[in-house]
């Protein structure tokens, strides 16, 4: 008698195989659509744009479509949503800091006013072909980062949001918030009066060495405390929903006023909130994520104009009415410096540099030192802006490659950055039930723009320097509460 029963294992295997095949077909279809769109857009640009405009438009378009293709492939691999992927956010920043300058060039039709960037760009009299060539360097960096991230990230979906809340003690959260507030007060008391944006970076110069180290310790505890407090509160979102809103408004307002318009801390806080919301509350979809990033772009631009008007709202509105809408010059920071240095490189007139600059980022994890002697940003300022109070421009992997190995060096930096982010994401998202991995990933996600304006090694060094002290404080607070209320804390405290 023939057995007509089908084994469950065979059915499961067949079903899985069918789902995989269907997913592959859908992925191939999406990739085909992206590539076809790229081809049509390139053909359209060739027809509609002049040869000068094409020199800039083509590499910018390739960067955009490489990003779209990256999103398609990444979304097929991770089911927790690509907005929670640090590779997506970092690649988005790379695209913005590449394509927005290109768009600005096209809007100006390559007629750069003398004060275009207030630095070394306009005086170089850049030609469209030179601008396009440098955009291809940006493209090289972007593509190597995206490809390496996909390779290292793998096909894991990342841990989904927890099925239920993991209550934390309000006492521990309150203690961390009090620590942050105390550090804010201490920093304000130790700070010298500051009248402008650049003075923000020299506010502790008049302090004695011991007082300056205490101020730096307060800054470290404050910065790390933001991420520890937010992660603790989001682990029980229902309980801390309204305190989260109040805390975020409080620290964002403080950072904008304290720094006189510096936006990096505010941006990092808002990205940390988005990351925690995505994984702990509700998945942020691709369209919602783009809208959120668009709002941040508008906020970035508004704060820059307000700061340029010396925080006079009437002057800012008058400037807007006279000159119209403009894109924040911040998005040209990576392009302008690296373009200038590649011009210097091609002309063989780069200033002398110390080989220790290559290793400076490893040492920045050591606290209480300013690490300026072998910092490439300070090297740039010493050679090109010797009278500047603080370095007026950033560097980053693209600019750093210009002073060392050129395009080959740049490709290696892109691969290292992509592999680093991919491996860190793979490790952290597989351990999201662990508090330490959770906080570390939120920090990397929220501050990933640092890897574009400095380096990934610098960002990881800052993570150790910033998070370690605050985590030690939080750990002892949790241990103290467990000693006082052992039974309740076993149910309440997050796992380590």
UniProtKB/TrEMBL annotation:
It comes from the Bacteria. Keywords: Membrane, Transmembrane, Transmembrane helix. The chain crosses the membrane at residues 31-50, 56-74, 86-107, 135-152, 172-194, 214-235, 242-260, 266-282, 289-309, 410-429, 436-457, 463-480. This is O-antigen polysaccharide polymerase Wzy. The lineage of its organism: Bacteria, Pseudomonadati, Pseudomonadota, Betaproteobacteria, Rhodocyclales.
């Amino acid at each position: 008698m023939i057995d007509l029963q089908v084994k469950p294992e065979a059915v499961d295997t067949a079903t899985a195989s069918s789902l995989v095949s269907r997913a592959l077909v859908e992925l191939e279809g999406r990739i085909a659509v992206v590539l076809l769109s790229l081809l049509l857009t390139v053909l359209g640009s060739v027809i509609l744009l002049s040869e000068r405009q094409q020199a800039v438009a083509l590499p910018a378009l390739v960067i955009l479509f490489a990003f779209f293709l990256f999103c398609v492939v990444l979304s097929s691999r991770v089911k927790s949503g690509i907005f929670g992927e640090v590779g997506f956010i970092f690649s988005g920043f790379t695209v913005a800091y590449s394509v927005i300058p290109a768009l600005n060039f096209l809007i100006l039709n390559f007629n750069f006013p003398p004060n275009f960037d207030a630095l070394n760009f306009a005086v170089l009299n850049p030609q469209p072909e030179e601008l396009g060539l440098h955009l291809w360097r940006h493209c090289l960096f972007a593509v190597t980062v995206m490809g390496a991230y996909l390779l290292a990230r793998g096909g894991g979906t990342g841990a989904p949001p927890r099925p239920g809340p993991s209550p934390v003690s309000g006492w521990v959260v309150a203690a961390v918030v009090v620590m942050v507030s105390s550090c804010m007060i201490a920093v304000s008391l130790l700070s010298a009066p500051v009248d402008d944006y650049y003075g923000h970076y020299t506010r502790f110069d008049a302090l004695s060495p011991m007082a300056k180290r205490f101020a730096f310790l307060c800054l470290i505890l404050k910065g790390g405390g933001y991420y520890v407090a937010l992660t603790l509160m989001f682990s029980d979102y229902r309980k801390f929903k309204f305190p989260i809103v109040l805390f975020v408004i409080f620290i964002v307002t403080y950072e904008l006023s304290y720094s006189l318009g510096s936006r990096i801390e505010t941006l990092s806080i808002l990205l940390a909130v988005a990351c925690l919301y995505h994984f702990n509350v509700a998945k942020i979809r691709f369209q919602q994520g783009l809208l959120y990033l668009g709002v941040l772009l508008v906020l970035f631009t508004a704060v820059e104009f307000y700061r340029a008007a010396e925080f006079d709202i009437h002057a800012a509105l008058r400037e807007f009415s006279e000159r119209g809408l403009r894109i924040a010059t911040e998005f040209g920071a990576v392009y302008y410096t690296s373009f200038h240095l590649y011009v210097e490189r091609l002309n063989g007139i780069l200033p002398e540099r110390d080989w220790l600059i290559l290793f400076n980022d490893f040492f920045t994890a050591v606290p209480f030192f300013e690490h300026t002697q072998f910092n490439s940003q300070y090297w740039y300022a010493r050679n090109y802006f010797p009278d500047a109070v603080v370095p007026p421009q950033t560097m980053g992997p693209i600019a750093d490659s210009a002073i060392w190995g050129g395009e080959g060096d740049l490709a290696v930096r892109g691969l290292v950055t992509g592999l680093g982010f991919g491996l860190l994401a793979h490790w952290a998202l597989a351990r999201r039930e662990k508090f330490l991995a959770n906080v570390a990933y939120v920090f990397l996600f929220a501050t990933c723009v640092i890897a574009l304006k400095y380096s990934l090694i610098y960002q990881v060094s800052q993570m150790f320097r910033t998070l370690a002290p605050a985590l030690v404080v939080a750990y002892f607070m949790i241990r103290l509460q467990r000693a006082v209320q052992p039974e309740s804390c076993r149910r309440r405290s997050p796992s380590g």
